[in-house]
Design goal:
This protein is mainly alpha-helical. The chain has 2 domains: about 110 residues, RNA polymerase sigma factor, region 2, helix turn helix motif (Rna Polymerase Sigma Factor, Chain: A, Orthogonal Bundle), CATH 1.10.1740.10; about 80 residues, Arc Repressor Mutant, subunit A. Helix 3 packs parallel to helix 9 and helix 8 crosses helix 9. It starts with 5 loop residues before the first helix and ends in an 8-residue tail after the last helix.
């Protein structure tokens, strides 16, 4: 499988071969992580954005929203760059928080959702999205429920989650990935759309 190109691996993953995405991640992790680290200069933050980059890519690929142009790595770097920008924008919106607290702010999956504090309708929809996600969580295995709760609702870093659950960071990353995959499958099977657009 390692001899296959990115396009072939993507197609295999789209028809259900989970190993294909692992090969893709392994193939490009060093380059993508280095790109992220060069911009943020923080190990934990780089790990979080790296993981979120691939989770977002997985969603796009599963939904057949990735258009192959033979530039998979460039596409991944664009996603990573957008997430970095989102992180710093979110951080700048929290200027009223003390410097100590500000330094502890972590990236959240909810930064993916468009934010407009002037639009009450979007705030209500976002609140409904969060409630829908919470309802779906009960159908996940307990360890995946816990990981989603800690990561996306309590906004702990992957390192903090690993310490709190007494597991390795790799185990934590794997559980988050499979929890997202399971949530996405539930959404697809039940025609649930979580979007402000």
């Amino acid at each position: 499988m390692k001899n296959l190109d990115d396009y072939q691996l993507i197609k295999m993953y789209q028809i259900g071969n989970e190993k294909a995405i692992e090969v893709l991640i392994s193939r490009h992790q060093k380059e993508i992580f280095s790109t992220i680290f060069y911009k943020v200069l923080d190990d934990d933050l780089s790990n979080d954005i790296f993981q979120d980059t691939f989770m977002k890519a997985i969603v796009f690929i599963k939904e057949n929203r990735y258009n192959d142009e033979g530039k998979f790595v460039i596409w991944l770097k664009r996603i990573a760059n957008n997430l970095i920008i989102d992180y710093y924008r979110a951080k700048s919106r929290k200027k009223t928080i003390s410097e100590t607290q500000q330094n502890e702010q972590e990236f959240s999956i909810f930064d993916f959702l468009p934010s407009n504090t002037d639009n009450i309708e979007e705030q209500l929809v976002k609140s409904q999205i969060i409630e829908d996600i919470k309802k779906m969580l009960i159908y996940l295995p307990e360890n995946q429920q816990e990981i989603i709760q800690l990561r996306f609702f309590e906004e702990l870093s992957f390192k903090e989650i690993a310490e709190k659950t007494n597991t390795s960071i790799n185990t934590t990353l794997g559980r988050v990935r499979y929890a997202i995959i399971n949530l996405r499958k539930m959404m697809n099977d039940n025609n649930i759309i979580l979007s402000l657009e």
